[in-house]
Amino acid sequence: MDKEFEVKGIIQMLKSISDTAEHSSLTGALKNGVKSAQQSYNRILQRLHALDLVSEELFSPLPEESSFDEIGLAATQLSAFLKGALGIEKRAGVANREPGFISDVLKSILGENSAQKDNDEDHEE
Predict the structure, then answer these.
(1) Helices (DSSP H) in 32-113: which residue ranges?
(2) Which of 41-45, 52-56, 59-63, 111-115 has the lowest mean pLDDT?
(3) How does pLDDT run across 12-37, given as a tens digit for each residue?
(4) Are 39 and 66 in contact (CB under 8 A)?
(5) Cα(89)–Cα(96) distance, rounded to whole angstroms?
(6) Burial tier of 85 (Cβ tally within 10 Å: 0-12, 13-18, 19+)
């Protein structure tokens, strides 16, 4: 799977978890979904650790007895960390970066040098 696509999807999943947790906290609805949200957060975190995109010292798995408030806060913090690390900023609801910026940052984080790759491809012709 393309890593940029995967990380963008993870950020959206974290937003969904955070939104659901906030809704549940405000309305009392969806109480039975807390375990599922906790498990989803932990799977996301496990994947990010495997990709070496987050530090285990900063982000640790949530315990089974976590509340929706705790899960929502953790998801919001993790999402903010990823957006900050990838340079995704929003101003007035509009992305404040040019297209491809996320891809360039991800390539840098993941150790891929696209300029070198392009240069190598040019010399193959």
Answers:
(1) 34-50, 68-86, 101-109
(2) 111-115
(3) 999 999 999 999 989 989 989 999 99
(4) no
(5) 6
(6) middle
Write the DSSP symbol of residue 90: E
Domain spans in the chain, listed from the N-terminal domain onward: 3-124
List the structure tokens of 11: 């950020």
Which amino acid type is present at position 64? E
Which is it for the CA torsion 71, 75, 77, 81, positive or negative?
Answer: positive
Residue that is written with structure tokens 């990838």 in the block: 86
pLDDT tens sequence across 2-17: 888 899 999 999 999 9
Q: Which residues contact 92 (CB under 8 A, 6 or more apart)?
A: none
Q: Which amino acid is at 103?
A: S
- Residue 5: the pLDDT is 86
